[in-house]
Amino acid sequence: MFQARSHRVLVWVEYIYKRFFRNLHRSDIIFLATRYPMIVGPNLGNPAVISLGTDTYFEMTLAYNRTHKQKTVERLVRNHIVLENARTHQKYSAKVLEIFPHKISKYSYLRNLAQHNVYGFRDRFFKVRVAIPPVKIAPPRKFELFNITYINPMRNPHTVYHALCVTNQNWENFTFIQATDLHIAKRNDAIFDTIATKKFLHVDLDQPIQSYFEAMDPEIFTNPKLRGVLEFLEYRNRANNFNSALRQFITQANILASQGKLDFVLMTGDLIDFVRISPYSSSLGAERSNFQLFHDFLIGRFQSSPLLVPCFMVPGNHDFRMNHYKLMGMTSLDFAAEYKSFGLTRNEAIFFKQPGVLNPLASSSKALIDYYRYLNPKLDFFKHLGKFHFLFYNSGPDAFLGENSLVDLIGGEPDTTGLLPIQITWLKQYILQHVRSEDKVIAIFHTPPLNFSREYDIHDMLGSTRLGRGATPWISEYRLDVGTISSNRSKFVLTALGEGESHPLDLVLSGHVHRPAEYRVEISNTYSTEREEDRYRVYCDYFSRQLMELGGDSARVREFWQKNRPLFVTSCALGPINSHVREGRVPGYRQFQVKDGQLTNFGQVHRHQQPYIFLSRHRNVTLTVPWRSTIGNNWQDFTGKIEVEISNCEGISRALIFFDVEIRFHGHGIRGYEVDPHLQVKNRFTRGKIMQSPLIAASKKIYHRFFIISNVQHFQWSFRGTCRYGAGPFSGLLGIRLNVRVISVVQRAGEWRVIGDEETSNKVGLSY
């Protein structure tokens, strides 16, 4: 009988744990098991912004146990709230002005928190009005951040960090940053060391190589022993850690804020790479989640300084992913491979092996529990600052059932579920009720409403390029729904255009695709079908450059926005240097400048100060069709060009580039070729010579040559030629493959450093 009773008790305890505490870290269980209130908001990812001289109080939301009455809550809260300056650590005893119940509507975020047991037994909520503490803001700083702590009678404090921003801004002139796709995870710090240890185990790193650079000796690039040292130096100098990128960004942002040059940061999703820290864990309660790790980054607990700038966050598709995924993808065919986003090559990613799970892309509503608790309890919200309205949207987890969602997922650019009809309705109602004619509206997403495939080249999208080719300036023939929101995409675009005589949006910001692009949309008056996407036209250009060229002139800036809004803007990931950098995926962030109530700049800022190689994908290698023929001879013409550039060249005294190009011809009855190459130097550091090899491994089907180029920052290698083949019935040129390898070495402070080792290939024609 005693055993049966004990068993029933254990069953009951297990039920309570699974029902309320399985998603909690052990350090939270004791506090959450008590009956005292907890602070819901404001929070680190959605702080309250209070203006000195205008506001006299701010509002907090508390979660409490349903058994507590209002008088009990008032007794537990009054004289128990402390405000602490996050920078100076000066503490203030907060004065509570008013406490009243918070009613929960059908679509309230509080209902979502209660349904997911985010705060344990607490499923009722109170609003608390708290007086602003006496704050002095010393110029050039424009704000002070505060932590909010509730100390219950058991002296067990509950703190929300950087949740209150007190500012002296009038929001006529301010600056903010969009940082996106941070992908924080505990395993990021292990990737570099693990690969370096395994890949370079047999490389003799003691080989002296500095003299080879001084002598411009090609052996440094062709000797296998020395090549291993080169690869190690390039790998060591490469920034391939998302965690390190955030640490560097925190330092940069704090410097800007201390100089009065930064007011807040927008973090637009993919804050973490996945939720569970360990691939072996079966529940969130076993250990800390990557959301908690990200939280510790921002408050200065995890190998970094605290981010002393208010930040506003929305989740991305990775924030919904519960499990680890392999860098190589789920199969040996690179399905959903992610190693390129980490700045790694395929051969490097093979060395980092971790156990996979059955479904690494599994999304769950439970994934965001720590996001709600530590970062932001709201998925959709708004901020009104002066004439600017910032509307934050949740664009959802990965989509699998959309029209092209599975194809895009396999291609490495997943769609997300997108917007619910209620979100579109909320947008329309907000604009109708709160936005005046002179106001500016900026919508913030993780996943963009418009995006072209990475298989396209952005230069082919530009209006000037298309007009030069005799095409329409708008890009109607391209797929623009690759890696976008899958539900209500066109409805949102039409709403952003101001369809129905509503106020149009000015800017739509997003990340997700890890590359910058800027689109303008206008209503089409010539559509002839019922499809919503045919009711508007999309243009692609460098609109941020056009705006910057106006020099901040108020009248011209106003005219620019009247003509071009709404602009849809995607931004690069914060880091690291992507192995797709040749496609424009340069790590960094966008910095926005508002002057006299007008947005005068939203240009991309490169985060890395180290130089790196930018290699174009030479997509314009072409074959002319049809082939031409003479008596007994047939031939096919081909042309192409490759551009190579060293970016961030500050501090470089000398440079050395090894440029290796190989063209292979595939077909039947090929008799030979003629290639006319041309090397054009666009930008030099100083005068230098170019060493060109004779043809290497020349045959009737292979053209191979390398160059050693000194002191050149930017050059273009173009070529044209003819391939001859016989006149037999089966003779013909089927395809051409172009293989390129670029190794770049620069000298900084007297030391030679390898900054890039890029290999890429491109094929054209029918087959290869």
Q: Topology of this structure?
A:
Elements: H1 2-21, H2 26-33, E1 38-41, E2 48-51, E3 57-65, H3 70-77, E4 81-85, E5 91-93, E6 96-101, H4 109-115, E7 122-131, E8 143-151, E9 157-167, E10 174-179, H5 188-199, H6 210-214, H7 219-222, H8 224-237, H9 242-258, E11 264-268, H10 290-299, E12 311-314, H11 346-349, H12 369-374, E13 381-385, E14 388-392, H13 405-410, E15 416-418, H14 421-434, E16 440-444, H15 458-461, H16 463-468, E17 485-487, H17 489-496, E18 507-510, E19 517-523, E20 536-540, H18 543-548, H19 554-564, E21 567-570, E22 588-595, E23 598-601, E24 604-606, E25 612-615, E26 622-623, E27 628-630, E28 633-647, E29 652-668, E30 670-684, E31 690-692, E32 702-710, E33 712-725, E34 732-748, E35 751-765
Parallel strand pairs: 2-9, 10-11, 11-12, 14-16, 15-17, 16-18, 18-21
Antiparallel strand pairs: 1-3, 3-7, 4-5, 4-8, 6-7, 8-9, 10-22, 13-14, 19-20, 19-21, 22-23, 22-24, 25-28, 26-28, 27-28, 28-33, 29-32, 29-34, 30-33, 31-32, 34-35
